[in-house]
Amino acid sequence: MGATDFRVLLHQFLSAFIKEAAERPVECYLASCRKPSILSHSFQRASVLNRLQEGGVVFAIRPRRQEDQPTNNEVSDFVFRTPISQAGRFKGFCKLHDTAVFKPIETAPMSRNVYKYILLNAYRGFAYAHTSEKLLHDQTRGLQDTKYFKNTIRDHPRIAPFAKTQYESAVRDIQTRAALAYPLERWDLVQERFEEIIDSSDPDYSETRVAKSFCVEYLPIPIDLYWAALAGADLVLPGRGSTSSHPVCVGLLPQCDSWKPLFFFVCLQEEAKLHEDLLEKLRWQKRQPQPDATVYLLLQDLLLFLSGDIVMAPKLHRWLAQQGMSELLKQYWEDVTVPLGKGNPPARRLGEWRGFCLFPPLPPHGSLTRSR
Q1: Do the beta carbons of residue 260 and residue 221 sit within 8 Å?
Q2: Neighbours of 110 (CB within 10 A)
Q3: Positive or negative CA dihedral for 332, 333, 337, 339?
Q4: What's the rounded mean pLDDT across residues 67-87?
Q5: Tell me: the pLDDT tens digits for 238-287?
Q6: How wide is the angle at C-alpha 179 spanned by C-alphas 178 and 184, nearest 5°?
Q7: Per-domain residue ranges for the chain?
């Protein structure tokens, strides 16, 4: 067995461990609850996924991290076709809180309070990302139990001859990746801020109350959307490094109920100055009568770069293929999702035209102008 064959076999072995870790029971994400979680959806099924589906199916962009990869549902090397019952599932909230907390953004008539609408969607996307980070840390702690692994591998007839050097090298790679992952303590404060509002006997989503904890900016999108994205992430931009001390939340929501499409950005109030350039661009676009292509391409870049949770309508998937944009999108995705520990993403100016656009000229809304 050559070194390459060994690493393939070892990857399969470690993947089985990761899968087992992912299937362990998890408590409700809400800090005050200890009930077991159910498989929640990162996107609300009735208000988002049902808007994008055709025949009960959507397309999802491949998650950035290997351990988040789907194991079925017609996986390709970039996107996969999935029934909406499987889209964006994670062990998030217990049955009670999965329904009660998010009812205002799930069932009609939906809340008309824009801060409630944004904060609940941001919290759900943040919970999805935070849960993924916790799982990564748990997996890494398990991999550090070298006695367990050495004993297991020692008895494996095909792995044993290569175990000492190759296995230790592989574990170092995984531990390095985890060490570079966002420290969990930096997520905790953001979760606390969300739940101070959400998990109270009488939640107050007024602009005044929300502004005590968060800076919230949003941009209405004047065209129909055929994709959605949610992210809680460290805002580490290509060529610029980290711009924040705590995760930010971004999202793109399609039209649903009486809500028109919108993009949102949420950060801790005390860190708003760190993101002033982006916030000012959003405020400037709000004042314009027509969409500016460079702003929309900037939003597209941010969502692709930060999000591990993107779904698109089959209509958009077909359109990208017909326009010859699918390969360009795939190349960009691979460029900006350099594995942790394997170098930095290539420095590029965000918002440049790269040959594809996820805000397409689908009738009857016309098209965005390409940036020059």
Answers
A1: yes
A2: 19
A3: negative
A4: 63
A5: 444 455 679 999 999 998 877 889 999 999 999 999 899 899 999 999 99
A6: 80
A7: 22-136+185-336
Three-state SS for 125? helix
Using the 8-state DSSP alphabet, how is residue 49 labeled?
I
Q: Report in angstroms the alpha-carbon separations of 218 from 190, 226, 362.
A: 19, 18, 23
- Rounded CA-CA distance 230/300 in Å is 12
Share of the chain above pLDDT 70, in %: 66
Residue 219 has pLDDT above 80, yes or no: yes
Nearest Cα to Cα of residue 313 among 246, 229, 247? 229
| Structure token pair of residue 353 | 């035209």
Percent of the chain with pLDDT over 90: 33
In the 8-state DSSP scheme, what is residue 347? P
Query: Residue 66: phi, psi to the nearest 5?
Result: -60, -40
| 94, 37 contact by CB (below 8 A) | yes
Per-residue tokens: 352: 């440049």
Whether the CB-CB separation of 371 and 343 falls below 8 Å is answered with no
Q: What distance in Å separates the CA atoms of residue 307 and residue 230, rounded to the nearest whole number?
A: 6
Name the strand (E) or helix (H) holding 214: strand 214-220
Residue type, 334: E
Lowest mean pLDDT segment, chosen from 42-56, 142-156, 284-298, 319-333: 142-156
**104: Cβ–Cβ under 8 A, 6 or more apart, which residues?**
110, 111, 116, 117, 120
The answer to whether residues 259 and 253 touch, using CB atoms and an 8 Å cutoff, is yes
* pLDDT of residue 372 exceeding 60: no
41: tokens are: 């959806």
**251, 235 Cβ separation under 8 angstroms:** no
| C-beta separation of 359 from 223 below 8 A | yes
Q: Which amino acid is at 148?
A: Y
